[in-house]
Amino acid sequence: MSDPKTPVRVRFAPSPTGRLHIGGGRTALYNYLLAKQTGGQFILRLEDTDQKRFQEGAEQEMIDGLRWLGLEWDEGPDVGGPYAPYRQSERKERYQAYARQLIEQGDAFYCFCSSKRLNEAREHQRKHKLPIRYDGACRTLTKEEAQARVDAGEAHVVRFKMPYTGKTIVTDAVRGKIEIDNAQLDDYILVKSDGLAVYHLASMADDHDMKITHVFRGSEWLPTFPLHKRIYDAFGWEEPVWVHLSVFLKPSGKGKMSKRESADLAKDNKSIFLTDLADLGYTPEAVVNWIALMGWSYDDRTEFFTMENLIEKFSIEKLNGSPAAINFTKFDHFNGLHIRALALDDLAERMKPYFAAGGIDADDETLKQLAPILQTRLKGMDDILPMAGFFFNETVAPFTADLLPRKTSAAEAATITQRTLPILESATAFTHDELDTPLRELADELGFKPGQVFGVLRSSVTGQRVSPPLFETMEIIGKDKVLARIRDATTQLEVLAAAA
Asked: Does 4 score more than 90 pLDDT?
């Protein structure tokens, strides 16, 4: 385990072959927390050697998503650093040199088997119920013979030579010691026929070269964990602390969550991709809180964490290897908590893009007035426009049904708006203290409940049934605009009453 006094060097090394999801975000977060906690370095490295699956724009989306979460790296492809380059595609010669070293040592070998021959060998193994693995056809070639075939231009890959007998023991910080029979392991490919190293060699080499002390990664790497230890041993390198994180399960808890299920989530206005979450109304603070607790806990009581709290309290020892179901109800809960924890000036500034998405250029002064009356009512930031867009409209168009309180005719509702106009016209301020009593007295005089009077006013002024507090709303909108909207509603009700 790590000594909190010893600065660590950790890395997040995504492959730009798709969108960055919350699983990758969690891996990056844990790396970042440990680096900040110990005064160490957090490195971003791009593992872009899989050119067939490379997606244009994926790299920038990853960078944008990480920065939106509040994660900044000390070294990386865009900021540089002492171990540059930080893209694997630019380190090809380094990996080839390591591959040649392994071949010279007898720990790896050139393999010239065609795809056809490999398929035939696997079919034979299936037929005879043998372990499905490379059958070792090229392991026995002498170095001289293999090199001659390479020099002649024959297509080849480089494979690691795994032992056939005995056991390999690996140690994971979450799961402890794991013992594997070598007979179950394969002679994995290290360098493809195009000369590009695969993860097994490239990542191990980079972690060594960049002096990485702790490797956080998904549990999907556990099956090849013995290979990675064997590579470290072959070079005589000191292993990092290996940390294999828990699997994310679907919200139902049945089956592993994957990118393929994202389409089903989208139908419910949910997403596992980081750059979608802001558009869906989530704050980065809520995302950080949510994903931190999917695989780690501080105790059995504390759930609300800021980034500063997490940097202070995070520890590898409290990671949990059990699968974690993605719980969007809990996510929404955290989002509300973090929205209510924002400073009002910060909330006002964050509201701008949500109004802008609706074509509203919201001014700073109005946003500062809105922040305190919206903050306790927002479940998500995407509630802002439907809840408060009417503040910036010149007019509103309430549904007629919204202007009619229960068991109230259009003529009666028109009477309410007509009689409230002089009260509002004479008011010096639209405050609770000035308006509440006279409007309640009006309701009593007309034989209505106060809620009926306030309901007609709310719909007339906002154009909707639900809004922030009525008097604060009218004060922000302004007297002239409020009176104009009530007059418009009165006209609408009078027309309806005349037609009845």
From this structure: no
